[in-house]
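Give me the 3D structure for AAA+ ATPase domain-containing protein.
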Amino acid sequence: LHLNTAARALSYSNTQGKRAGGAPARAPARSDQSNSQVIQCGGRIRVEDGLSALVQILPKDVCENLLKQPKRDELLEVVLDLGRCPEARFLGEDSGVILRTEEITRRDLDAAQASIGEFGGDNRAGIEGTLHRISAIRTRKGVIVGLTCRVGRAVNGHVDMVRDLLFYGESILFLGRPGVGKTTVMREIARVLADELHKRVVIVDTSNEIGGDGDIPHPAIGSARRMQVPEPCLQHKVMIEAVENHMPEVVIVDEIGTEAEALACRTIAERGVMLVGTAHGERLANLIKNSTLCDLVGGVQSVTLGDDEARARGTQKSVLERKAPPTFPLLIEMREQHYW
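Predicted structure for AAA+ ATPase domain-containing protein (340 residues):
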């Protein structure tokens, strides 16, 4: 966690069972039911979406083999690629598990697509009433040749490590590579801000990942409101629309990735609205070197120092300095799912 110029490290490890500066956590108690799961750990309740809705789109034999897996509660995603064996991937595992020896056929993909429905402009679709996400791989002609069926989870108590930062009212950016749980954190933060801190929260949900698919948002976001985005390229416009039309105190946006979205974030922050967002990257240095997104942390510019100043600093005359105040004063690096 980087707080302006000060640095503070927060971590929570399932392996060590400790949070930095905190008491040891009790071992989680797991349920063996595949429909739903509730995990209680150290007084916190973690609720996961059941697999029943997701496995219904899979071929019958693949579904049966998946439910026999001992680690099904830690399922990350199921990959269906034409001409290859279906594969299940689990949290913390380097390699996947083959779910059947027969290859995926065109009939398997067509049946799965019929169960899912239409994909959006970003080649993503959801299952109504759940947080699961299905992404498509297409040929140059637009024919689907692969599906990634990713499990979506709602986790209560996941933001306990940084709950105190929500009281500051400062904008927070979560930085991490794909798969470390950034979107899961966004859901829990939305719920905490709306239900516990009683803020007016609006979520700009480009791919319906935060609030789930369908017209009614998933209960995981609490009383926060959700605005859907017709096309991914319009995310920055919907962000501005949210501020102008709905008077939010907090705007939550996932996957800030373009210059237009970075500029929209700065515009919103200058209007006194708190932002909570995510971006891809492993460390703050990655963001600074990203010419498209570096404005989120103030940007950088080259300046030339005078002889006396350079001598006093003990540096060369040409140095890099922050160009402007950061859009996000607080930045949290999510190294792993339980290590921030």
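Helices lie at 52-55, 60-67, 106-116, 182-196, 235-246, 259-270, 284-289, 307-313. Let me know if you want a second pass.
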